Amino acid sequence: MNQRIGYARVSTDDQHLDLQRDALQQAGCSLVYEETASGKNAQRPELSHCLKALRPDDTLVVWRLDRLGRSLPDLVRIIEELQGRGIHFESLTEKIDTGTAGGKLQFHVFAALAEFERSLIRERTQAGLSAARARGRNGGRPAALSDKQIRTIKSLLRDPTTCVADVARDYGVSRTTIYKHCGVIKPRISKDENFETV
C-alpha cells in the first residue's frame, strides 16, 4: 500500500511543530517525522530516517519547501533522488505535487533555476579571480608576511642572538611561517639528547 509520509522541521526549541503536524495529518500522512534543526545544518537525522522509510510510489509531504531543503540546489538534489527511487514529493503551501503533470513541470522549473544559480556563482567566481589576477593578485589566502616584512625578519635573524619564537610573536605569525618564508633552517632535536627539567 502506498504511503504518504510527512516531514516537519522547526529551527529552534522556541518554535512549535503543531501547525505543520496538523497540516500533514490532514493531508493524509500516516507517519510524520519531526525534528528541531537549523536549516543550515546538514546533519538532520530525522530527515535521514524519513528518506530511508520511503518506498517506490510513496509520497513525501512537507508543509513548505523550506522545511526540506537548505537551499534551492539542495532541495532539487533531494527531490531528484526521490524521483530516481520512484517516490513522489508534495509541498502543501506551494501546492506542488510531482505525482501530477503540473507538479513535474514546476519541479523542472526549480531545477533549471538551481542550475542557473550555480552557473551565476561559477561566473562570478571566475570573474573575481580574473579581476584579481589583472591587479596582480592570485586567489587563495593572503600572504601572512609582506615582502618588506620578510626582508626585515631575515635581517634580524642574521644576529645569532635573535630568537625565532620572539620574532614570530612580534609579527603575529607562527615559527613555522618564519621557517617557511624567511629561509630559516628549522632546528632539529636529536632523540639522543637528554634534557634536564628545572
TrEMBL record:
Pfam families associated with the record: HTH_7, Resolvase
Signal peptide extent: none
Assigned keywords, A-Z: DNA integration, DNA recombination, DNA-binding
Residue ranges constituting the Resolvase/invertase-type recombinase catalytic domain according to the UniProt record: 3-136
Active site as annotated: 11
InterPro entries noted in UniProt: Homeodomain-like_sf, Recombinase_CS, Resolv_N, Resolvase-like_N_sf, Resolvase_HTH_dom, SSR_resolvase
Gene3D superfamilies: Homeodomain-like (1.10.10.60), Resolvase, N-terminal catalytic domain (3.40.50.1390)
Family affiliation: Belongs to the site-specific recombinase resolvase family.
UniProt-recorded name of the protein: Recombinase family protein
